[in-house]
Design a protein that fits this description.
Layout: H1 5-24, H2 30-49, H3 61-87
Helix pairs in contact: 1-2, 1-3, 2-3
């Protein structure tokens, strides 16, 4: 069960920060939530493949959770913006 906690924290960060970043950059809200969820998990796996792991901000568990939350938010914001711009109706 402990192996899923970083994924849940990354998805939570993407779901919370992703729509905010997508709206600030000109996208919509619905694509921001879906993109935030998927982008948060994808950013977690991408950071792990790059070797950034959970020790970029520090070795304590709190800092590892904060790093997972922030990387989920950034990845969610990027993918959320892309999805919301694709889903946005053309005027």
């Amino acid at each position: 069960m402990d192996q899923f906690i970083p994924l849940v924290v990354s998805a939570l960060g993407g779901t919370m920060i992703g729509p905010i970043l997508a709206r600030l950059l000109g996208g919509g809200g619905t694509g921001g939530v879906l993109g935030g969820l998927l982008g948060g998990v994808a950013a977690h796996f991408g950071a792990a493949q790059l070797g950034l792991g959970d020790t970029l901000l520090g070795a304590t568990p709190l800092m590892a959770h904060l790093q997972n939350f922030l990387e989920g938010g950034i990845g969610g914001g990027v993918l959320g913006l892309a999805l919301s711009l694709v889903m946005k109706p053309k005027a």
